[in-house]
Specification:
There is one protein chain. The protein is of the alpha+beta class and 422 residues long. The protein has 4 domains: 66 residues; 102 residues, Beta-Lactamase (2-Layer Sandwich); 81 residues, Helix Hairpins; 150 residues, Histidine kinase-like ATPase, C-terminal domain (Heat Shock Protein 90). Helices cover 51% and strands 19% of the residues. The protein contains 11 helices and 12 strands. Strands 2-1-5-4-3 form a 5-stranded antiparallel sheet, sandwiched between helices. A 5-stranded mixed sheet has the order 7-9-10-12-11, covered by helices on one side. Strands 6-8 form a two-stranded antiparallel ribbon. Helix 6 runs antiparallel to helix 7, helix 8 packs parallel to helix 9 and helix 9 runs antiparallel to helix 11. It is rod-shaped, with a radius of gyration of 44 Å.
Length: 422
Amino acid sequence: MFTNNELRRKAEEILKQSEGPNDSLGQMDVVKLVEELSIYQIELEHQNNELRESQERLLQVKERYADLFNFAPVGYIILDKYFIIKEINNTACNILNADSSNLKDSSLLPLIQPECQDTFHLSFKFTTKTSKTNSCDIKMRKPGGRSFYARLIIATDKYVKEGSTLFRIAMMDISIEKELEQKLLIETENAKKSDRLKSVFLANMGHEIRTPLNGILGFSSLMIDGENDTDLIKKYSEIINKNGVRLLQMISNILDISQIDSGNLPIKIEAFVPEVLLENVIELFSGKAKNHNNQIIRRFDSKNQQYTVHSDPGKITQVLMNLLSNAIKFTKDGKIEIGFQLSEGQIIFTVQDNGIGIPDNAKDFLFDRFYQADNAIAGSDEGTGLGLAISKSIVDLLEGTIWYKSELNKGSEFSFSIPVKR
């Protein structure tokens, strides 16, 4: 079978021979030539069909690649060595919240936060030098200005001509991952801090329990041994009672924490008169205030006196007792003001003192369990470090808010508001 060129030369030779005056194209030659041309035509048609099918398959592959590129769950960007975006898929456009027409042929660098530029350049440089895939977590910003965390996986493009090196970048929005990671770090740190505070609490608990128990056992032993002096017996009884109250308060605090954690701390809403409630609290602490040479001053709005409101008076009394106890504890030869006011369905209680105030290093942990502000204050009284934590939990259960302001060596003011009905 003749090739294309051979068939052409053959036909030209036969045609030249037929141009002479006495020469004519032989019938057999013509038949043979027609047969060869027919075969060649069939082959050409077959080759054309194969070429068309190849072109169709290539088009399908290109379309499939375009679909995979555009609708991949990961953002893809093709960059040149000058960081110019040559191609970008739909997912990357969605992540960046911008149209491809606004991103193509523009630089990627303005979309990277300034503080992360060095990290990106180092990763890009590593891939350029080693041709190895590299990744980096950086902070990027959308064209509108909102920032987000992105993970970029950088690789060289192997399917480009020499001299036109391109880089493929896979981009994922990892903002949620970073947020969870940050929360986990905070929770881990809080857990460590709580564990440290619990360790301090447990270390002190032995002392806190033994001290009142030793007082109770010691002075009761003296009474059992036959002490007959009435005055001494009375004094011993007062000491025993004081230590018993201290021990009971400590156990009550621990039980309260347990009930709060289990969600079983009972709330009992009933009517009460705030003025009467405060007077009862003041009376309970009048002796302790005198021992510290402190004066308790009542601060009431006269128009609110004898008003009846509805909430949990027992829980409010517990919070006021904790606050007043702390005020007396950290105030010597001073004055303590305690009062309340009614405002727009809220009752606001305030306990203010002119004592030593709260150190700056204690303010961030003041309402944490087992933390004692007096850890940083030499010569302070005993305490379990649960009072303020319990107070905040009670106020939260009553759907209220507790806050404070304090200045070192000038005093503190604690306030809490509770929604009430008259």
